[in-house]
């Protein structure tokens, strides 16, 4: 079960480090950017989980209504021999149907990229049929881990969607603008 | 097999991105630091794999002969929605028995930290007896992946050691100074 290990690694090696620091990063961002991230929903890390595991490197490519705005303040942590390893989160500006802008801290769950790339490499021993099942297992494992983590409460939102059918743009749009 | 997925993720999501860029990063570092990393052996990423999975955040804590020197130039990649994600590698200065300094780009294999932390969390379903077996599986899988990767040839050195018995310092010292 590749997805089980990847979900734990995503939590232990990333979310457990950045989520407890998110509120502080947002409040120092707001001081310098006239309180742009004022609403409760905006102050969470939105983690995109497309069950197809098709992950774009740049969100603004996916949908013209999504534009990169700025980074949150960077987090530096000495980790496994790398001094001052950098953790960075991007803020995006998203336009709704009436062209009103909303702000959102959002990124894909990177381990899905590993699942996608593994299914494309024969020696990894992992087929594209496995991919959907592993993506679902990744989501349910991550959800359980986060629900029992006190450190990360109210700091995240998992946005899972089945983009096999509808176009990526539709999936993105409906999820974001429903905020 | 958790270790199988973690080894593939370490290659696809990290080594495959940073190793092909290493030679370029070293040559630009050498221009500004009077060719400090001149020797062939030094121009590789040394990846520490202690079979105990005991990973220190800061290598200078492990052994007083090892001192952090500087970072290599940073690598920025748009990845999974994070714009300009930062990848950083640290250079250390290591003194041998005769107090002569050697330079080395070295870090621990981050996934071993995940293995260690998972074995300490009951809900991860992973015991500390599994840990040694998974650490060995991680090493052999990673070794096979890297040996068949053209992108990463001659850019790395896996330094595996059984630090269960000897003190960490001895293991560190003997490996480094044998360069
Ligand atoms: N030494 C080191 N320096 C790095 O910059 C680095 N980046 C990744 N890795 C290791 O390679 C593997 C693949 O990385 P991926 O990004 O797919 O998964 C990552 C990713 O999903 C998430 N994550 C970690 N750091 C970040 C980050 N800075 N931004 C976004 N996501 C991150 O959490 C997972 C586990 O991270 P680590 O536990 O640090 O170990 C990773 C992993 O073993 C690194 N290792």
Automatic annotation (TrEMBL), chains A, B:
Domain annotation STING ligand-binding: ranges: 1-179
Domain of life: Eukaryota
Subcellular locations according to the entry: Cytoplasm, Perinuclear region; Cytoplasmic vesicle, Autophagosome membrane; Endoplasmic reticulum membrane; Endoplasmic reticulum-Golgi intermediate compartment membrane
Protein family according to the UniProt entry: Belongs to the STING family.
Full protein name: Stimulator of interferon genes protein
Organism annotation: Microcaecilia unicolor
Taxonomy of the source species: Eukaryota, Metazoa, Chordata, Craniata, Vertebrata
Name of the gene encoding the protein in the UniProt record: TMEM173
